[in-house]
Amino acid sequence: MDRIIDVTGGKGGNAFLVLGTEKTALIDCGMAYCASNLIKNIKQVLCKRTLDYICISHSHYDHIGAIPYLKEQWSNSKVLGAEYAKQTLNKPNALKLIRSLSMQAAQIYGADSIADYDDEMMKVDTVISDGEMLDLGCLSIHVVETQGHTKCSLSFLVDNEILFPSESTGYMSKSGKIYPAFLTSCSETIASIDKCQKLKPRFIISPHFGLVNESAALSYWENCLLAVKETREFILRLVSQGCDEEQILIEYEKVFRDSQSRLEQPEEAFRLNARSMIRTVLREEQF
Fold it and tell me: Is 140:156 a contact under the CB 8 Å cutoff?
């Protein structure tokens, strides 16, 4: 763990620097509004070394927002991500949404705006896929495909013992509660949780949370599964009561849009995610 450093620049999206003897890699990079703090934190750790890789778990704004600023600072660094992430970041509408959500997030966290950037720098340079290994010298990062949150979700296993699970498996709040995030597939999410559990990592670094303590880690995967099942049942119960998608969204927001969520997530992002989960359940249950 001494070669994995939390360099997160601000609230809303974590970033961890992995230090090999030969290469360095950043796992996710957080939001655009805190890119300057992120870069400062990375420089303090790297000293005269360079940043070689930026590994992205998926293509959402809160995990990739700082990419253009990192590329300006370390022009030779390579962004590594799934093929679907590469395709997504080539779409003008996706880039427009990323910019819009990044600006909303900046306001939530007290920043006036975000520094302007070139959309051309928001891209995946090298595609990585399930089973590939990134050798940093003295330690390695194994790529684990874990779809369900997005079609481009990847998890990263460092030295076969430290797992950065993708948001497909869910994410832990400060209270210790696990929230689901099956935006594209409920069934694939369950498969991804099972896949991660079978890796039997010694340490779990949960998305948007960080290192899970030993006691919470014992039931982490079971709680991830429970969160998926409870949310799915909540949606199906409303369907059985005759609610349409809009009515379900309203009820979902009443239950899951708590005070902590309002502090941390733009309203547009919350509704986009909620609507996606509702549609995922309806589609997979063939409603």
Answer: no
